[in-house]
Structures are given as C-alpha cells and as structure tokens.
C-alpha cells in the first residue's frame, strides 16, 4: 500500500467550527509539488489560485454566477480536484514541473452568513499544505504548511511565494495575511519625459507581460507625463508611441516592496541627431534614488555642469547640443562622433559607459529594484540598444557600479557586469598654459597643445585654447579632455613665446591630481642677461613655495615685497600665484657668482594633503635661447 500522511493545526474554542479537514498525500517524486487547501464545514464558497510562470490555475466557486471560467490546465500545472458544494474541500493543484520563476499561492472565500454571525477565514480552520518539499533535488527552503490567519475579515488570504531558481531550488516566502484586494497586483506609475526632463503628455503606453501570467494595459499619459495602472506582479515590456518621437521600450519589473513600482521612459525626437554617427545615451530609473551616468570619451571633453541635478535645470539646453551631460532622471548625453577630425585621434579609441548607483534601495539590492535601463539611440536605427542591470553575483557585496558597454566607430559592444569598486579607467584632465611673468602683455598666451601617450601616439591636438562658444571650453586658458590612466607627454608651442615647453612622462592615475600647469615666457620679456626659474604644478595643492638660497640670503614667496623685491640683490619674484597650477617665477637680472640652491617646499597650509608625487611639479630654468634645464620628480618604479 502507498503510505500517505498529512498534518493539521487548529483551535477549538468559542464560536469556531468544531470540525476540520486534514489533507493527506503520498511523498512526491520527479520534482513535482502538490498544493492542497482544506477547511472546515464553513464557509462554502472558496477558491484557490496558483499563479505559475505559465499562467494562473484557478476555478470560480460553485456559487459564482459570473462569466469567468477560470483555468484548470497549463502545460506544467493542473487543477486536480475541487469541492462541489459545501465545505471541507479539498482543492488540489498539481505542479508537474517546477519551472524557474515565481509561483504565487493565495485564496479567497465569501463568508458564510449565519444567524450568530458570518463565518470567514478567521473561523474556518483552513489549512494549506505543500506536498513535495522533502525532495532533495528541490533543496526546499521554507515552510510547507500554513494555517489560516486568526484575525481579520478581508476576503483574500495571501499565503506565499515559491521562488524557483535556474537550478530548480525552491525558496518559500511566507505572507499568511488577509487583504482586501486580490494579491499579486500593484499600482504602477509610468512616467514619460524628454531628454531635458520635461514631461510628455499624450503618450500611448502599452504594458505587455513577458509571460502569460500578466495582461496588457493601454492608455495615455496625463499633463505630468504620468500613467498609473494596476498590474499583476510580473516582468513587463513597456512600449510607448507618440508622433514626433522615436518609439521606445523599457523593461518594467512589478514586484513587492522594496521593489520600486515606477518606471521612467525617455522620449527622444529624431531632430536630436545632427550627424549620422551620433549616439544618444540615456539612463532612466524609477523612484527617488540617485544614479550617475559616466561616459569615458578619450581625447574629448564631456561636460558635467554643476547644478544640473535640479529637475528643471536643463530644460533650456538645445536638444542637439553634443558632449553635454544633462538632466536628473533621465540622464542623457549626445556623443558626437566626427568621422574626420585631425585634432582628435579616433583610431582604436573606445568610448566606455558605466553607472554608479546610490540610494535607499542599495542595501536591499539597489540596481535590481528600481527598473533601471540604459538606452542608446541613433539616427539610423532609432532605439539601437538597451541594457538592464544583471543580477548581483554571489561574490559581490552591493554591486553599486554597473559596467555597460563600449562604443567604437559608432558600433555598440555590450560588456554588462556589476562590481563593488569604481571601474573608471580615466577621468577629465585639464592643462593650463600660463605666462611666467605677471602683468599685461601685447600677445596673450595662445599656445598649441599636443598630447601623446608613451607610444608616441597622438591623443589630442588643441590648435589654441578652447574658445567660450566651443564644445571643449571649460575656463579661460584651460585645455580639458578625458584621458585614460597612464603616462603622457604634453608639448606647448606658441610663436610669440619661448618654446616648446615640454612635460614628459607625466603620470595620471587615480591617486594623482587630474591636472597640470605649464609655464611659458614671452620672447620679448627675456634677454641675454636674464635668467628665469619657474615652478608650475597641478590644480592642487593651492600653493607651493619656490625658493632659492645663496650666500646673500633666501628668496621665497614669503620674503618678496610688493615691488617684487627680495633680500638678495638682483633677484626678483616675478609671479606668485597661490591658487593652484602656478606659476611661481624668480628672475635673475644681473650676472652673479656663487652657488645657488633651488628647491620647492610644500607647506600644505590648508591641510590639502596633496604630495609632490601627486601634483607633478615642474621646475624650468629659462635663458634667452629657451628652456635650459627642466626638473621633475622621478616617480619610483612600480608606483603609479
């Protein structure tokens, strides 16, 4: 004979039913699971619902006169038996194969009306049993038996989730609570905004479930660009359409807390693209958490203006403005990719995209819970690619960084992965070419700047300092661009100034300052009797002290007078900038005999804690024919 067993837990007191029904069954095999609901003599009208990855198994109660027929058979699940009339049950659903995904089990009863009061779930002695949890292959985690909630009058009994992973392992998430509305649904908000953050009204929205477990909902957004819709817990594809915009689709996961029940859909006009190779990268997500889109653009400058986190701050930026990060959510930037530009070396250089996420959901799963998506649009393809964060790997702590893709020659190559640490391979680097001597001059510095890597490969050539109305402009007399971490040579040339000024083997790394100062001398400001000693460095520390010691005393920026005079005759302090970059300049204006010691001090008066190794100080000794000697700190081998 086949051994059968079951269990029940019940109470006997007061007005409770003095009877129960115990479900018994044999051990399950072949990784099957049987879901059985039983109860007492009352109530009579009961329905059991089991949502599977293939759909929902259920049958309306016998006294339901509606048009709904329910569903009693799916490819891997079936309704085995259901009570005819009266109480006790059982209702049994056989899950013939545990598919990867989520199973949701809940039930409903219509209270039985009696003279002494209604009999609902709280008085029902209802039991739900899951047979099959003993199978080793399922690696079952969680309870297999549930008793009715003791309090409440709501009609729905939300019982549990069965989450099945790719290996077929089952994890039970228990709710065991009474709720007023049918479980498994959540009010969800779809928000449509353009790339500057303005809401878009009248967008047709279609929410299409990825499996048959959900339905489709179609409507239009209101004046705030929003549409609220009640959706079943499932994964959806949200498709939007509106005349004048590119058709767009985003992924939406509707789940319980702490998952976000909101998704932001970027609306893009075709007029955004001025060139066939331009790419628009848009990051969007739901909720109030914060995310930063990082795009590495070697040889070019992607601007990230301060203050653009405000919702309305980027409304007035022309949509065709390239190389400009804009918006708060969505965040976007238009990557302009000129096919031929002699100033930028595009050969072999890749743009790289990654995201940093921070916010209240980080501890619960972060990127997985906010319906985040990176969308890439192009002129030819419209929505060319879309990426969603991969699941958090077991070896990661929080995975708040998400590496997404690289772009080379207009082609997008996915390399989506999560990581705990900043994956940046470089950053924005700025160079300032500054006059060694203070004061007004006939010819302002207008140097050409050439940047090469250690392989002598051209990275970027600036014909002159970027003008205010150009894409590369940051501040006056500053050359800004993205550089990968490494070693570089910087060469500045100006026909009216002594040169070229060369800075070789400059190290750029996460631990160094992302900037460099170069100092040039106008030709007419130096003659055969004059020698200049200049000091320049990075943007920090704010101040370094250039010093000279001889038999007659010490010259430093702290000993000069308002007339540039110093304690040593024939020596003047020509420039004394203390705002980062430099320069500090000492001039020798007459022939002098003896030994002179030139040195630099980093007194760090503001506690900036920036060392010499981090700020790339450069000392040049300049005579009438040009730079006579140059001194840099030699970086220790193996130390970047």
TrEMBL record:
SUPFAM superfamilies: Carboxypeptidase regulatory domain-like (SSF49464). This is Uncharacterized protein. It comes from Hemiselmis andersenii (Cryptophyte alga).
């Amino acid at each position: 004979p086949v051994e059968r067993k079951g269990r029940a837990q019940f109470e006997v007191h007061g007005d409770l039913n003095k009877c129960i029904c115990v479900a018994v069954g044999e051990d399950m095999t072949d990784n099957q699971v049987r879901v059985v609901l039983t109860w007492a003599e009352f109530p009579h009208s009961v329905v059991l619902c089991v949502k599977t990855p293939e759909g929902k198994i259920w049958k309306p109660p016998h006294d339901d006169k509606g048009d709904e027929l329910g569903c009693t058979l799916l490819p891997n699940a079936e309704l085995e038996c259901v009570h005819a009339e009266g109480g006790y049950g059982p209702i049994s659903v056989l899950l013939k194969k545990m598919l990867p995904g989520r199973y949701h089990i809940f039930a409903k009863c219509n209270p039985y009306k009696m003279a002494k009061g209604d009999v609902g779930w709280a008085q029902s002695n209802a039991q739900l049993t899951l047979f099959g949890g003993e199978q080793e292959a399922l690696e079952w985690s969680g309870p297999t038996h549930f008793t009715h909630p003791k309090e409440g009058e709501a009609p729905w009994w939300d019982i549990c989730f069965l989450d099945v992973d790719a290996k077929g392992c089952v994890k039970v998430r228990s709710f065991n609570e009474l709720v007023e509305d049918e479980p498994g649904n959540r009010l969800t908000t779809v928000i449509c905004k353009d790339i500057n953050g303005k809401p878009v009204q009248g967008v047709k929205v279609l929410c299409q479930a990825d499996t048959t477990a959900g339905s489709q909902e179609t409507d239009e957004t209101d004046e705030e660009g929003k549409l609220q819709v009640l959706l079943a817990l499932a994964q959806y594809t949200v498709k939007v359409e509106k005349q004048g915009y590119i058709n767009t689709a985003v992924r939406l996961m509707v789940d319980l807390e702490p998952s976000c029940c909101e998704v932001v859909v970027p609306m893009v006009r075709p007029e955004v693209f001025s060139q066939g190779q331009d790419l628009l990268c848009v990051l969007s997500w739901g909720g109030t958490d914060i995310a930063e889109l990082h795009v590495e653009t070697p040889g070019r400058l992607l601007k990230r203006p301060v203050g653009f986190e405000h919702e309305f701050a980027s409304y007035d930026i022309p949509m065709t403005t390239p190389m400009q990060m804009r918006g708060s959510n969505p965040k976007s930037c238009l990557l302009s990719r000129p096919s031929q530009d002699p100033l930028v070396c595009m050969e072999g250089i890749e743009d790289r995209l990654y995201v940093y996420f921070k916010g209240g959901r980080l501890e619960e799963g972060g990127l997985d819970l906010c319906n985040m998506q990176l969308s890439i649009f192009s002129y030819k393809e419209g929505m060319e690619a879309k990426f969603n964060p991969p699941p958090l790997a077991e070896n990661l702590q929080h995975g708040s960084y998400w590496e997404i893709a690289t772009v080379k020659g207009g082609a997008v190559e996915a390399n989506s992965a999560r990581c705990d640490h900043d994956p940046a391979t470089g950053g924005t680097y700025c160079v300032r070419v500054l006059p060694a001597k203070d004061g007004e001059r006939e010819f302002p510095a207008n140097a050409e700047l050439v940047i090469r890597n250690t392989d002598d490969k051209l990275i970027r050539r600036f014909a002159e300092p970027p003008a205010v109305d150009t894409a590369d402009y940051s501040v006056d007399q500053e050359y800004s661009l993205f550089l990968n971490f490494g070693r570089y040579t910087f060469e500045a040339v100006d026909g009216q100034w002594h040169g070229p000024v060369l800075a070789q083997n400059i190290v750029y790394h996460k631990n160094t300052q992302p900037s460099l100062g170069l100092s040039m001398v106008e030709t007419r400001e130096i003659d055969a009797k004059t020698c200049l000693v200049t000091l320049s460095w990075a943007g920090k520390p704010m101040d370094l002290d250039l010093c000279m010691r001889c038999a007659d005393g010490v010259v430093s920026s702290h000993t000069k007078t308002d007339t540039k005079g110093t304690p040593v005759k024939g020596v003047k302090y020509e420039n004394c900038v203390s705002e980062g970059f430099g320069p500090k300049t000492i001039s020798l204006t007459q022939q002098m005999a003896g030994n002179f010691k030139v040195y630099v001090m980093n007194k760090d008066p503001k506690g900036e804690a920036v060392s010499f190794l981090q700020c790339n100080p450069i000392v040049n000794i300049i005579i009438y024919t040009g730079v006579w000697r140059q001194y840099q700190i030699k970086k220790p081998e193996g130390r970047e």
